[in-house]
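Z., the sequence and structure:
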Amino acid sequence: MTTSRGSLPKMRIFHLKVATRIGFVAKIERFSLQSGDEIESSRQN
């Protein structure tokens, strides 16, 4: 029981790291998309 209880926090931390990494990548993608739209709009003008 002690081993499974000790492995739970590790998995929780792992999931947290993965979630933050995915959120970080999503933020970068969203930012690059916004900047790309701005570049295209300025080109049309």
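The longest helix spans residues 2-44. The radius of gyration is 20 Å.

Let me know what you think.
H.
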